Fold this protein.
Amino acid sequence: MRANFSFSLTPSEAVDYLQDKGFKQTFFYDEMMHDAHHKAFTVAKIMRNDLLEDMRDSLAKALKEGVGFEEWKKNITPTLKKYGWYGVIDTINPQTGEIKTINVNSRRLSTIYHTNMRVSHAVARYERMMALPFSTNWMYQSAMLKNSRPTHKAKHGTILPRDDAWWETNYPPNGWGCKCKVVALSDKEVEKQGLSISSRPENIASKDWDYHVGKRSTNKSLYKDNLSKLQDKELTVKAKEELKEFDKKATLAVARKQLHEMIDEMIVKNNVKYPTNFIQVGLLSSVILTKVQNILETELEHEGVLLHKNDLYHARPQRKEAYNQALGVEEMRQIVDVIDEAKDVFVDVRDDFKAIIYTFEDKEDKEKINKIVVDINHVVKKFGKTNAIITMGKINKVDIEKSLKDGVFAKIE
Protein backbone atom coordinates (compact mmCIF):
# COMPACT_ATOMS: atom_id res chain seq x y z
CA MET A 1 0.00 0.00 0.00
CA ARG A 2 1.60 3.22 -1.13
CA ALA A 3 1.12 6.45 0.75
CA ASN A 4 -0.23 8.91 -1.74
CA PHE A 5 -1.73 12.33 -2.20
CA SER A 6 -5.32 12.57 -1.09
CA PHE A 7 -7.55 14.76 -3.23
CA SER A 8 -10.23 15.78 -0.75
CA LEU A 9 -9.61 13.78 2.36
CA THR A 10 -6.22 13.65 4.01
CA PRO A 11 -4.28 10.84 5.71
CA SER A 12 -4.83 11.22 9.45
CA GLU A 13 -1.07 11.06 10.02
CA ALA A 14 -0.62 14.28 8.01
CA VAL A 15 -3.24 16.18 10.00
CA ASP A 16 -1.98 14.77 13.32
CA TYR A 17 1.57 15.78 12.44
CA LEU A 18 0.60 19.41 11.95
CA GLN A 19 -1.82 19.60 14.87
CA ASP A 20 0.62 17.95 17.29
CA LYS A 21 3.29 20.62 16.90
CA GLY A 22 4.04 23.14 19.58
CA PHE A 23 5.11 26.72 18.77
CA LYS A 24 8.41 28.53 18.48
CA GLN A 25 8.94 32.18 17.61
CA THR A 26 11.71 32.78 15.08
CA PHE A 27 12.84 35.97 13.39
CA PHE A 28 15.01 34.37 10.70
CA TYR A 29 13.94 31.17 8.94
CA ASP A 30 17.25 29.44 9.75
CA GLU A 31 16.93 29.94 13.50
CA MET A 32 15.15 26.60 13.57
CA MET A 33 16.68 24.04 11.25
CA HIS A 34 16.07 20.53 10.01
CA ASP A 35 14.24 18.06 12.26
CA ALA A 36 13.48 20.79 14.79
CA HIS A 37 10.60 21.63 12.45
CA HIS A 38 9.04 18.28 13.38
CA LYS A 39 8.73 19.45 16.98
CA ALA A 40 7.44 22.99 16.65
CA PHE A 41 5.46 25.10 14.22
CA THR A 42 7.03 28.39 13.26
CA VAL A 43 6.68 31.14 10.68
CA ALA A 44 9.64 33.48 10.44
CA LYS A 45 8.89 36.95 11.84
CA ILE A 46 5.62 36.00 13.54
CA MET A 47 6.55 36.98 17.08
CA ARG A 48 3.38 36.10 18.99
CA ASN A 49 2.09 32.65 19.93
CA ASP A 50 -1.61 33.45 19.48
CA LEU A 51 -1.04 34.25 15.80
CA LEU A 52 1.18 31.17 15.38
CA GLU A 53 -1.57 29.04 16.90
CA ASP A 54 -4.22 30.52 14.60
CA MET A 55 -1.94 30.02 11.59
CA ARG A 56 -1.18 26.41 12.51
CA ASP A 57 -4.85 25.59 13.15
CA SER A 58 -5.92 27.16 9.85
CA LEU A 59 -3.36 25.09 7.95
CA ALA A 60 -4.40 21.90 9.77
CA LYS A 61 -8.05 22.61 8.91
CA ALA A 62 -7.17 23.25 5.27
CA LEU A 63 -5.13 20.05 5.18
CA LYS A 64 -7.96 17.98 6.65
CA GLU A 65 -10.67 19.43 4.40
CA GLY A 66 -8.63 19.52 1.19
CA VAL A 67 -8.76 23.32 0.95
CA GLY A 68 -6.58 24.80 -1.78
CA PHE A 69 -4.21 27.74 -1.41
CA GLU A 70 -6.51 30.47 -2.73
CA GLU A 71 -9.37 29.48 -0.41
CA TRP A 72 -6.99 29.16 2.56
CA LYS A 73 -5.51 32.59 1.82
CA LYS A 74 -9.00 34.08 1.64
CA ASN A 75 -9.91 32.49 4.99
CA ILE A 76 -6.72 33.44 6.86
CA THR A 77 -6.39 37.02 5.57
CA PRO A 78 -8.91 38.57 8.03
CA THR A 79 -7.00 36.94 10.91
CA LEU A 80 -3.67 38.26 9.65
CA LYS A 81 -5.13 41.74 9.28
CA LYS A 82 -6.53 41.55 12.82
CA TYR A 83 -3.04 40.89 14.16
CA GLY A 84 -1.47 43.51 11.88
CA TRP A 85 0.57 40.88 10.03
CA TYR A 86 -0.47 41.61 6.48
CA GLY A 87 0.83 43.78 3.66
CA VAL A 88 3.98 45.89 4.14
CA ILE A 89 4.85 45.80 7.83
CA ASP A 90 7.78 46.51 10.15
CA THR A 91 8.95 43.64 12.34
CA ILE A 92 11.32 43.90 15.29
CA ASN A 93 14.02 41.35 16.06
CA PRO A 94 13.53 40.78 19.82
CA GLN A 95 17.19 39.90 20.31
CA THR A 96 18.78 42.88 18.58
CA GLY A 97 16.01 45.46 18.29
CA GLU A 98 16.61 45.54 14.53
CA ILE A 99 13.60 46.68 12.49
CA LYS A 100 13.03 44.87 9.23
CA THR A 101 10.34 45.72 6.68
CA ILE A 102 8.67 42.74 5.04
CA ASN A 103 5.77 42.25 2.66
CA VAL A 104 3.23 39.63 3.74
CA ASN A 105 1.80 39.04 0.29
CA SER A 106 0.45 36.17 -1.76
CA ARG A 107 3.95 34.87 -2.53
CA ARG A 108 4.94 34.67 1.15
CA LEU A 109 1.63 33.04 2.09
CA SER A 110 2.02 30.56 -0.77
CA THR A 111 5.40 29.49 0.60
CA ILE A 112 3.92 29.02 4.08
CA TYR A 113 0.95 27.05 2.78
CA HIS A 114 2.70 24.76 0.32
CA THR A 115 5.67 24.06 2.59
CA ASN A 116 3.43 22.90 5.44
CA MET A 117 1.19 20.86 3.12
CA ARG A 118 4.08 19.08 1.42
CA VAL A 119 5.97 18.32 4.62
CA SER A 120 2.82 17.01 6.34
CA HIS A 121 2.09 14.73 3.39
CA ALA A 122 5.74 13.64 3.29
CA VAL A 123 5.55 12.57 6.94
CA ALA A 124 2.29 10.67 6.32
CA ARG A 125 3.76 9.01 3.24
CA TYR A 126 6.88 7.95 5.16
CA GLU A 127 4.93 6.48 8.07
CA ARG A 128 2.64 4.52 5.77
CA MET A 129 5.46 3.23 3.60
CA MET A 130 7.39 2.10 6.69
CA ALA A 131 4.33 0.05 7.68
CA LEU A 132 4.50 -1.97 4.44
CA PRO A 133 6.22 -5.28 5.19
CA PHE A 134 7.28 -6.11 1.64
CA SER A 135 7.87 -2.73 0.01
CA THR A 136 11.39 -2.28 1.31
CA ASN A 137 12.72 -0.41 -1.72
CA TRP A 138 12.05 3.24 -2.43
CA MET A 139 12.08 4.98 -5.79
CA TYR A 140 12.79 8.70 -6.06
CA GLN A 141 10.33 10.49 -8.34
CA SER A 142 10.82 14.02 -9.60
CA ALA A 143 7.73 15.92 -10.67
CA MET A 144 9.59 16.31 -14.01
CA LEU A 145 8.08 19.74 -14.60
CA LYS A 146 9.62 22.43 -16.76
CA ASN A 147 10.86 24.28 -13.68
CA SER A 148 11.95 21.18 -11.73
CA ARG A 149 15.56 21.38 -10.57
CA PRO A 150 17.95 19.57 -12.96
CA THR A 151 19.59 17.79 -10.01
CA HIS A 152 16.19 16.46 -8.90
CA LYS A 153 15.28 15.39 -12.45
CA ALA A 154 18.57 13.53 -12.68
CA LYS A 155 17.62 11.41 -9.65
CA HIS A 156 14.21 10.46 -11.08
CA GLY A 157 13.91 6.67 -10.99
CA THR A 158 16.71 6.15 -8.44
CA ILE A 159 15.91 3.04 -6.38
CA LEU A 160 17.55 2.38 -3.03
CA PRO A 161 16.63 0.26 0.02
CA ARG A 162 14.50 2.30 2.38
CA ASP A 163 17.15 1.92 5.12
CA ASP A 164 19.89 3.34 2.89
CA ALA A 165 21.66 6.28 4.51
CA TRP A 166 21.00 8.45 1.43
CA TRP A 167 17.38 8.95 2.49
CA GLU A 168 18.50 10.46 5.81
CA THR A 169 19.40 13.68 4.00
CA ASN A 170 17.55 13.38 0.69
CA TYR A 171 14.01 12.29 1.55
CA PRO A 172 11.84 14.85 -0.31
CA PRO A 173 10.97 17.67 -0.32
CA ASN A 174 14.60 18.57 -0.92
CA GLY A 175 14.22 22.31 -1.35
CA TRP A 176 11.76 25.19 -1.26
CA GLY A 177 8.95 24.41 -3.70
CA CYS A 178 10.21 20.87 -4.34
CA LYS A 179 7.42 18.56 -5.55
CA CYS A 180 9.44 15.33 -5.58
CA LYS A 181 8.17 12.25 -3.76
CA VAL A 182 9.10 8.66 -2.94
CA VAL A 183 7.31 5.52 -4.12
CA ALA A 184 7.57 2.20 -2.26
CA LEU A 185 8.31 -0.99 -4.22
CA SER A 186 8.67 -4.62 -3.20
CA ASP A 187 11.52 -6.80 -4.49
CA LYS A 188 8.92 -8.54 -6.67
CA GLU A 189 7.76 -5.25 -8.20
CA VAL A 190 11.34 -4.17 -8.90
CA GLU A 191 12.01 -7.45 -10.70
CA LYS A 192 8.66 -7.47 -12.55
CA GLN A 193 9.20 -3.94 -13.90
CA GLY A 194 12.72 -4.76 -15.06
CA LEU A 195 14.27 -2.31 -12.59
CA SER A 196 17.32 -2.61 -10.37
CA ILE A 197 18.78 -1.11 -7.21
CA SER A 198 20.80 2.00 -8.01
CA SER A 199 24.23 2.96 -6.77
CA ARG A 200 24.06 5.64 -4.09
CA PRO A 201 23.99 9.08 -5.78
CA GLU A 202 25.38 12.36 -4.52
CA ASN A 203 23.29 14.47 -2.17
CA ILE A 204 20.86 16.91 -3.79
CA ALA A 205 19.02 18.56 -0.88
CA SER A 206 19.60 22.26 -0.27
CA LYS A 207 21.14 23.25 3.07
CA ASP A 208 17.73 24.05 4.57
CA TRP A 209 16.35 20.63 3.63
CA ASP A 210 19.25 18.18 4.08
CA TYR A 211 17.55 16.11 6.76
CA HIS A 212 15.00 13.29 6.75
CA VAL A 213 11.82 15.29 6.17
CA GLY A 214 9.58 12.26 6.66
CA LYS A 215 11.01 10.85 9.87
CA ARG A 216 9.85 12.09 13.23
CA SER A 217 9.99 10.63 16.70
CA THR A 218 7.15 8.25 17.54
CA ASN A 219 6.82 10.00 20.90
CA LYS A 220 4.11 12.49 20.02
CA SER A 221 4.37 14.22 23.38
CA LEU A 222 7.52 15.86 22.02
CA TYR A 223 5.42 17.85 19.58
CA LYS A 224 2.48 18.96 21.67
CA ASP A 225 2.40 22.23 23.55
CA ASN A 226 1.69 22.17 27.28
CA LEU A 227 -2.00 22.87 26.88
CA SER A 228 -2.46 20.03 24.41
CA LYS A 229 -0.57 17.62 26.67
CA LEU A 230 -2.68 18.61 29.66
CA GLN A 231 -5.89 18.16 27.70
CA ASP A 232 -4.67 14.80 26.43
CA LYS A 233 -4.05 13.54 29.98
CA GLU A 234 -7.50 14.60 31.07
CA LEU A 235 -9.26 12.73 28.27
CA THR A 236 -10.74 9.42 29.32
CA VAL A 237 -10.57 6.38 27.08
CA LYS A 238 -14.26 6.78 26.36
CA ALA A 239 -13.82 10.43 25.43
CA LYS A 240 -11.00 9.55 23.03
CA GLU A 241 -13.18 6.94 21.38
CA GLU A 242 -15.99 9.48 21.05
CA LEU A 243 -13.59 12.00 19.50
CA LYS A 244 -12.37 9.38 17.05
CA GLU A 245 -15.94 8.55 16.08
CA PHE A 246 -16.78 12.25 15.72
CA ASP A 247 -13.75 12.72 13.46
CA LYS A 248 -14.88 9.82 11.28
CA LYS A 249 -18.40 11.25 11.00
CA ALA A 250 -17.01 14.66 10.07
CA THR A 251 -14.81 13.09 7.38
CA LEU A 252 -17.76 11.18 5.92
CA ALA A 253 -19.86 14.33 5.96
CA VAL A 254 -17.24 16.16 3.87
CA ALA A 255 -17.13 13.25 1.40
CA ARG A 256 -20.94 13.13 1.10
CA LYS A 257 -21.13 16.87 0.53
CA GLN A 258 -18.57 16.73 -2.27
CA LEU A 259 -20.24 13.69 -3.84
CA HIS A 260 -23.71 15.28 -3.79
CA GLU A 261 -22.34 18.49 -5.29
CA MET A 262 -20.63 16.59 -8.14
CA ILE A 263 -23.80 14.57 -8.80
CA ASP A 264 -25.96 17.71 -8.81
CA GLU A 265 -23.64 19.46 -11.24
CA MET A 266 -22.64 16.57 -13.53
CA ILE A 267 -25.81 14.47 -13.54
CA VAL A 268 -28.74 16.67 -12.53
CA LYS A 269 -27.62 19.90 -14.22
CA ASN A 270 -25.53 18.20 -16.94
CA ASN A 271 -22.72 20.68 -16.24
CA VAL A 272 -19.85 19.05 -18.13
CA LYS A 273 -17.64 22.05 -17.30
CA TYR A 274 -17.78 21.31 -13.57
CA PRO A 275 -14.23 22.28 -12.49
CA THR A 276 -13.45 19.58 -9.90
CA ASN A 277 -11.90 16.53 -11.54
CA PHE A 278 -11.47 14.21 -8.55
CA ILE A 279 -13.17 13.74 -5.22
CA GLN A 280 -12.39 11.17 -2.57
CA VAL A 281 -15.45 9.14 -1.65
CA GLY A 282 -14.02 6.97 1.07
CA LEU A 283 -11.27 4.81 2.45
CA LEU A 284 -10.82 1.07 2.32
CA SER A 285 -11.35 -0.29 5.82
CA SER A 286 -8.42 -2.13 7.40
CA VAL A 287 -10.38 -5.38 7.11
CA ILE A 288 -11.11 -4.90 3.40
CA LEU A 289 -7.54 -3.77 2.78
CA THR A 290 -6.00 -6.81 4.44
CA LYS A 291 -8.35 -9.35 2.87
CA VAL A 292 -8.04 -7.90 -0.65
CA GLN A 293 -4.24 -8.00 -0.41
CA ASN A 294 -4.37 -11.61 0.80
CA ILE A 295 -6.82 -12.74 -1.89
CA LEU A 296 -4.99 -11.04 -4.75
CA GLU A 297 -1.49 -11.45 -3.30
CA THR A 298 -0.99 -7.83 -4.31
CA GLU A 299 0.01 -4.93 -2.12
CA LEU A 300 -2.40 -2.01 -2.38
CA GLU A 301 -0.64 1.29 -2.85
CA HIS A 302 -3.20 3.45 -1.06
CA GLU A 303 -6.41 3.07 0.93
CA GLY A 304 -8.24 6.05 -0.57
CA VAL A 305 -11.08 5.58 -3.07
CA LEU A 306 -11.46 8.31 -5.69
CA LEU A 307 -14.15 9.22 -8.18
CA HIS A 308 -13.34 11.12 -11.38
CA LYS A 309 -16.08 13.31 -12.80
CA ASN A 310 -15.77 11.60 -16.19
CA ASP A 311 -16.48 8.18 -14.69
CA LEU A 312 -19.50 9.58 -12.88
CA TYR A 313 -20.75 11.19 -16.10
CA HIS A 314 -20.14 7.96 -18.01
CA ALA A 315 -22.46 6.13 -15.58
CA ARG A 316 -25.27 8.69 -15.83
CA PRO A 317 -28.83 7.30 -16.07
CA GLN A 318 -29.43 9.01 -19.44
CA ARG A 319 -26.68 6.86 -20.96
CA LYS A 320 -27.30 3.49 -19.32
CA GLU A 321 -31.07 3.44 -18.86
CA ALA A 322 -31.57 1.81 -22.28
CA TYR A 323 -29.75 -1.23 -20.94
CA ASN A 324 -31.61 -1.20 -17.62
CA GLN A 325 -28.23 -0.99 -15.90
CA ALA A 326 -28.09 2.57 -14.63
CA LEU A 327 -28.03 3.62 -11.00
CA GLY A 328 -30.54 6.32 -10.20
CA VAL A 329 -29.40 9.67 -8.81
CA GLU A 330 -30.41 8.75 -5.27
CA GLU A 331 -28.57 5.44 -5.56
CA MET A 332 -25.44 7.30 -6.67
CA ARG A 333 -25.71 9.47 -3.58
CA GLN A 334 -25.17 6.34 -1.46
CA ILE A 335 -21.62 5.70 -2.72
CA VAL A 336 -19.85 7.09 0.36
CA ASP A 337 -21.99 5.09 2.78
CA VAL A 338 -21.78 1.87 0.73
CA ILE A 339 -17.97 2.03 0.79
CA ASP A 340 -17.93 2.90 4.48
CA GLU A 341 -20.33 0.11 5.50
CA ALA A 342 -18.77 -2.50 3.14
CA LYS A 343 -21.54 -5.07 3.72
CA ASP A 344 -21.41 -7.20 0.57
CA VAL A 345 -18.03 -6.92 -1.07
CA PHE A 346 -16.42 -9.07 -3.74
CA VAL A 347 -13.02 -9.18 -5.40
CA ASP A 348 -12.55 -9.73 -9.13
CA VAL A 349 -9.50 -12.00 -9.14
CA ARG A 350 -8.75 -12.00 -12.87
CA ASP A 351 -5.13 -11.07 -13.55
CA ASP A 352 -6.05 -8.41 -16.07
CA PHE A 353 -8.90 -6.93 -14.05
CA LYS A 354 -8.23 -6.90 -10.32
CA ALA A 355 -10.94 -4.88 -8.67
CA ILE A 356 -13.09 -4.53 -5.55
CA ILE A 357 -16.84 -4.72 -6.14
CA TYR A 358 -19.11 -3.11 -3.55
CA THR A 359 -22.75 -4.16 -3.84
CA PHE A 360 -25.95 -2.87 -2.27
CA GLU A 361 -29.68 -3.47 -2.56
CA ASP A 362 -31.71 -2.53 -5.63
CA LYS A 363 -35.04 -1.63 -4.05
CA GLU A 364 -36.89 -1.52 -7.37
CA ASP A 365 -35.81 -4.86 -8.86
CA LYS A 366 -35.22 -7.86 -6.57
CA GLU A 367 -33.52 -9.77 -9.40
CA LYS A 368 -30.75 -7.18 -9.64
CA ILE A 369 -28.15 -5.74 -7.32
CA ASN A 370 -26.34 -2.40 -7.47
CA LYS A 371 -22.57 -2.46 -7.88
CA ILE A 372 -19.67 -0.04 -7.53
CA VAL A 373 -16.44 -1.26 -9.15
CA VAL A 374 -13.19 0.05 -7.67
CA ASP A 375 -10.01 -0.47 -9.67
CA ILE A 376 -7.09 -1.06 -7.29
CA ASN A 377 -3.70 0.58 -7.77
CA HIS A 378 -5.34 2.75 -10.40
CA VAL A 379 -2.85 5.11 -12.04
CA VAL A 380 -3.68 8.80 -11.91
CA LYS A 381 -1.09 10.50 -14.09
CA LYS A 382 -0.52 13.50 -11.87
CA PHE A 383 -0.50 11.74 -8.51
CA GLY A 384 0.57 8.12 -9.01
CA LYS A 385 -1.37 5.04 -7.93
CA THR A 386 -4.53 4.98 -5.84
CA ASN A 387 -7.94 3.24 -6.03
CA ALA A 388 -10.69 4.63 -8.23
CA ILE A 389 -14.29 3.92 -9.12
CA ILE A 390 -14.23 3.01 -12.80
CA THR A 391 -17.87 2.03 -13.28
CA MET A 392 -21.13 1.62 -11.43
CA GLY A 393 -24.50 0.19 -12.35
CA LYS A 394 -26.79 -2.80 -11.91
CA ILE A 395 -26.05 -6.48 -12.36
CA ASN A 396 -28.24 -9.59 -12.23
CA LYS A 397 -27.87 -11.48 -8.96
CA VAL A 398 -27.47 -14.72 -10.93
CA ASP A 399 -24.44 -13.24 -12.67
CA ILE A 400 -22.82 -12.58 -9.31
CA GLU A 401 -23.53 -16.17 -8.28
CA LYS A 402 -22.12 -17.49 -11.56
CA SER A 403 -18.95 -15.42 -11.19
CA LEU A 404 -18.48 -16.83 -7.68
CA LYS A 405 -19.01 -20.39 -8.93
CA ASP A 406 -16.62 -19.91 -11.84
CA GLY A 407 -13.94 -18.47 -9.58
CA VAL A 408 -14.01 -15.04 -11.22
CA PHE A 409 -15.20 -13.38 -7.99
CA ALA A 410 -14.21 -14.09 -4.41
CA LYS A 411 -16.45 -12.88 -1.59
CA ILE A 412 -14.92 -11.01 1.31
CA GLU A 413 -16.33 -12.66 4.44
